[in-house]
Each structure stands twice: as structure tokens, then as C-alpha cells.
């Protein structure tokens, strides 16, 4: 036990170091972690590690998915739901059957159902490496959103297919039974996730000014969604994603600022350790997987060659799928002006009538008009399609699901090696060359000028709303008395300055501009305040309670500048 505890501590330190230096080296952290893991496994005396698949599927996977889902804007997810569904369901099924047929053709002894089970294992891409590279190199937000959405949902498709294929090896399921199980798993998983998300958001919103307690509930949400769904034979992955989307969407309305800041910090830390820990473990386990395949005596290199062939099939199927998908998106974009014209006419008709009499229709039309504007300004062309086709790296689910194959399946050791080899090949080759592809294609995200215009427009709306609220003659205190005029005037001036500073911060790109100088000066002042507080703490002339309150104030000031 002590040996594994030391390995865990060493793993955390390696993850931190790799995450710190990977951006400076221009290489995605998951790639380096796999390489480091392989190197560590070759050290003489290194322990043999083969983690039980339940540890990843039940302990690591739910928090990983939840931490990603809770930060996904549900509006963007909804706008590209059709594309995300096609990639995460139809593409995974097509890839599983294509690679499964190849494996069955080479190894007919294992049976077609078992071959499809392995195909399901190697079919879902892991979006961690792709999105980390994409965000770093400034890919368009819509492309990053599609990759993140695909990575959230495709695991569910793969795991449900794996479960169904394994059941088929025992002859206990029919074709229509498999379809029914899949539909049930998705619908029941969504229902469980929505219910858990809504209930936990309600419970956390009832706890005021106690971030420790709300954080404790937050840490349980992935498991509260995953375990009941799995016990109901639904998709625990879908349940976790649904709970995360609900929580992330409701957080600005139901949680305090302190709760939101705490949540972001905690889940980013958990996501960093678990996601990267899986890649480090993948590299560390490969020597044990190779040893098992060698000991079986049935052809180590045959498994490696078959893994390379499966990788080619996966890439080919993805290209054949992405090409018509991009063509469909471009055709839809060409129809946007016509759709927008009809929506504008409908909005004018509502405005000329009584908009307040049918607010839902007006809100629905405005949402559709915003969706059309999004399609027009955030197009996804062929260059984006090339990045989408090349972003097929495999990761955590492939690692865990491969080891969950039944022990009585023929060639089990070789099948696990095939899955691991596919994951490593795709991660190193596709992940390693993805930055070069992005640079060669010259894909850029939203321009700083356009983003600055959006922030300015939003700041103007906030300023107008603040002024209207403060100018309201019916504005009263909680005890029913009016606010003092001096308080209202001071609030107006401070609020105006803070909101205008938001726009200035984004629009001021000059390193010597006033906004940049102001931020630097505020940071230096906070450093002075912190230094004085430390001197007071060392002198012992102030009570600990007073020092703690002062520290919280300084921390809040520092947070506002970050």
C-alpha cells in the first residue's frame, strides 16, 4: 500500500510538471504524459500496474465528464446538437462495425459480436488533447464546442455498444433488443441526469454563505447521477453529462459568486489530475499489456499490425463521415439569409401586435433569430472540417473499456493490446501533428476586434440597466425606506466606472495604455497590502480573527483583478 501511495504522489507531481512545461515545449500534455509513463514503466524495479477497469469507469470517468460538462455553454451545445449527435452516435456505431469486421476477418475465432465489442472500445475519440491544443492555438469557439460535445457524448454510445455486444456473445440479445436497449439507456440516462442536476442545484441554492457545504454536495453530483443510472441499466455517462449541463446552466442564476468561483477552481483541479492521470497510467500500463500478449504466444506483432490497420480504418471512416457533414452545414449556412428574413418579418409582426400578450412566442422567435445569426457569423468550412477529421485521439474510455472485456473471450490479451496501441498511435501521431495542421490551414478564432465590439455592446446594456434600476422612484430598502441620495449617487458613479472598465480592459491592447497601467498599479497595491498584513501577523498585535477578515478582503481584491 505504501508503494502505491508513493506512486500516486509521484504521479501528481509529474502531472503538475508536465502541465507546466508542455505549453513551453509546444506539445500537448497528454502526449508527453504517455511518453513519460512508458519511460517510467521501463525503470528497473518499477511495479507492475494493471488497474481494475471499474476504478476508471466508476471513479475517474464520472468526475472527468462532469467537470467538462459543467463548463459547457448549454446554448452553444444546443445549437450544434445535431452535429454533436451525428459524431458521437452515428460515427461511433459506424466505426465500431467497420473495425469490428476487420478484427473478425483477421481473428474469426473470437466471433463477430466480440470483434464489434472491441470496435466499440476503440471508436470514441477523447477530446482532451484536441481541445487543449485547439484552445491554445485559438481555434474557432464553435469548432472547440463540437469537439467537446462529441467527447462528452460518444463515451456513452461506446459503452452501451460494448455492453450490448458482450451480451450478444452469450446469445442473450436480438437485433431489435439491442436497439431497444440503446434507446432506453439514452432516454433513462437523460432523465436521471436532469433530475439529479435539478435537485442538487436546488439543494445547494438553499445553503447560503457556506461554500464548504455546497462544495461537498458538488463533489457528489457525478456519482449521484452515474450510479443510479447504471443500476437502472441506463447510461451513467449520459446521466453525468446531463447533470453537468443543468448545473452549469443554472449556476449563474442559483449560486453565489463565491460558490461559482470555488466550483471552478475545484473542478479544474480535479479535471487536471484525473484526465492527465489516465494518460500517465496509459503509458505506465503498456509494458504490462505487452508482457501479457507475449506470454500468450499468439503473435505480439500481429496485434500491433492489426492495431495499425484499425487506426487507418478509424481515420478513413471519420473522413468519409465528416465530408458530408460539413457539406450539410455549409448548405444550411447558405439558407441562413432566407431564414433570417422570415424570422425578422415574424418578429416585426409580433412587435406591431401585442408582444406582451404572447411573450413566449416573442422569446422563441428572438432565440431562433440569434441562432441564425450564430450560423451566419460562426461558419464551419472545409478547413475546420479537416481539423475535425484529424481530431480522433483515443483516451480514458478506451483504456478502461478494453480491460473490461470478459476473461473468456479468445485472444483477450491481444485485444487489449490492440486497444492500447490504437490509443497511443492516435494520440502521438494525430495529436502530435494537429498543431502543425492548424498552423498550415491558418485557422483563426474570433477576432479580437469582433470580441471587443461584443464586450462593448454588452457593457452598454449593463450600464443602461443599472441606471434604469437606480433611477426607479420605487426603489426601496429591505425595511421599506428609501435609500439616501448620497448612497445612490456614489453607487451610480462606482458602477459606471466598473462597467466601463470591463470594455476598456478588452479593447485596450496597448501594453502602455492606461487600462494596463491601472491593472499593474492595482496589483502592486495589493502586494503592498499583503506585505503589511504579513508584518502585522508576525508582530502578533492583532487578533487572528481580524487578520483573517483582512486577508479575505485582500484575496477578494486580488480575485477581481485576475
From TrEMBL:
Residues 13-438 form the Cation/H+ exchanger transmembrane domain. Keywords: Cell membrane, Ion transport, Membrane, Sodium, Sodium transport, Transmembrane, Transmembrane helix, Transport. This is Sodium:proton antiporter. It is a multi-pass membrane protein. Gene3D superfamilies: 6.10.140.1330. It comes from the Bacteria. It comes from Citricoccus nitrophenolicus. Its main location: membrane.
Amino acid at each position: 500500500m505504501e508503494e502505491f501511495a508513493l506512486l500516486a504522489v509521484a504521479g501528481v507531481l509529474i502531472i503538475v510538471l508536465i502541465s507546466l512545461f508542455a505549453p513551453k515545449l509546444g506539445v500537448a500534455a497528454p502526449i508527453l504524459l504517455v511518453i513519460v509513463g512508458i519511460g517510467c514503466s521501463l525503470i528497473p524495479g518499477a511495479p507492475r500496474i494493471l488497474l481494475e477497469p471499474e476504478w476508471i469507469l466508476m471513479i475517474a470517468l464520472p468526475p472527468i465528464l462532469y467537470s467538462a460538462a459543467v463548463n459547457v455553454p448549454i446554448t452553444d451545445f444546443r445549437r450544434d446538437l445535431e452535429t454533436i449527435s451525428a459524431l458521437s452516435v452515428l460515427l461511433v456505431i459506424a466505426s465500431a462495425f467497420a473495425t469490428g469486421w476487420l478484427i473478425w476477418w483477421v481473428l474469426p475465432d473470437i466471433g463477430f459480436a466480440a470483434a464489434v465489442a472491441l470496435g466499440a472500445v476503440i471508436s470514441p475519440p477523447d477530446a482532451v488533447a484536441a481541445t487543449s491544443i485547439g484552445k491554445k492555438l485559438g481555434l474557432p469557439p464553435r469548432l472547440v464546442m463540437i469537439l467537446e460535445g462529441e467527447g462528452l457524448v460518444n463515451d456513452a454510445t461506446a459503452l452501451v455498444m460494448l455492453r450490448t455486444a458482450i451480451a450478444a456473445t452469450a446469445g442473450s440479445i436480438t437485433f431489435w433488443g439491442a436497439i431497444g436497449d440503446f434507446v432506453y439507456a439514452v432516454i433513462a440516462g437523460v432523465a436521471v441526469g436532469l433530475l439529479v442536476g435539478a435537485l442538487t442545484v436546488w439543494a445547494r441554492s438553499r445553503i447560503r454563505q457556506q461554500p464548504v457545504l455546497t462544495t461537498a454536495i458538488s463533489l457528489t453530483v457525478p456519482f449521484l447521477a452515474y450510479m443510479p443510472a447504471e443500476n437502472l441499466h441506463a447510461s451513467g455517462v449520459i446521466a453525468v453529462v446531463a447533470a453537468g449541463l443543468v448545473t452549469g446552466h443554472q449556476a449563474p442564476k442559483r449560486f453565489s459568486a463565491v460558490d461559482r468561483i470555488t466550483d471552478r477552481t475545484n473542478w479544474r483541479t480535479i479535471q487536471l489530475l484525473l484526465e492527465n492521470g489516465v494518460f500517465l497510467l496509459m503509458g505506465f500500463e503498456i509494458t504490462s499489456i505487452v508482457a501479457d500478449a507475449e506470454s500468450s504466444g499468439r503473435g505480439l506483432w500481429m496485434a500491433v499490425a492489426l492495431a495499425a490497420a484499425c487506426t487507418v480504418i478509424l481515420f478513413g471512416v471519420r473522413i468519409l463521415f465528416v465530408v458530408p457533414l460539413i457539406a450539410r452545414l455549409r448548405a444550411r449556412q447558405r439558407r441562413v439569409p432566407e431564414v433570417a428574413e422570415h424570422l425578422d418579418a415574424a418578429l416585426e409582426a409580433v412587435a406591431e401586435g401585442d408582444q406582451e400578450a404572447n411573450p413566449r412566442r416573442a422569446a422563441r422567435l428572438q432565440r431562433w433569430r440569434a441562432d441564425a445569426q450564430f450560423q451566419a457569423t460562426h461558419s464551419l468550412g472545409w478547413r475546420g472540417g479537416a481539423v475535425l477529421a484529424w481530431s480522433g485521439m483515443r483516451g480514458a474510455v478506451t483504456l478502461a473499456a478494453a480491460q473490461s472485456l470478459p476473461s473468456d473471450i479468445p485472444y483477450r490479451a491481444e485485444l487489449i493490446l490492440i486497444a492500447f496501441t490504437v490509443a497511443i498511435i492516435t494520440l502521438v501521431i494525430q495529436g502530435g501533428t494537429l498543431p502543425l495542421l492548424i498552423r498550415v490551414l491558418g485557422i483563426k478564432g474570433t477576432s479580437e476586434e469582433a470580441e471587443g465590439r461584443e464586450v462593448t455592446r454588452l457593457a452598454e446594456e449593463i450600464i443602461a440597466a443599472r441606471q434604469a434600476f437606480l433611477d426607479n422612484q420605487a426603489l426601496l430598502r429591505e425595511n421599506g425606506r428609501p435609500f439616501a441620495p448620497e448612497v445612490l449617487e456614489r453607487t451610480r458613479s462606482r458602477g459606471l466606472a466598473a462597467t466601463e472598465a470591463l470594455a476598456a480592459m478588452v479593447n485596450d491592447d496597448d501594453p502602455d495604455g492606461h487600462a494596463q497601467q491601472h491593472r499593474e498599479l492595482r496589483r502592486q497595491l495589493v502586494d503592498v497590502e499583503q506585505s503589511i498584513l504579513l508584518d502585522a501577523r508576525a508582530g502578533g498585535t492583532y487578533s487572528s480573527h481580524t487578520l483573517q477578515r483582512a486577508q479575505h478582503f485582500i484575496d477578494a481584491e486580488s480575485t477581481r483583478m485576475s
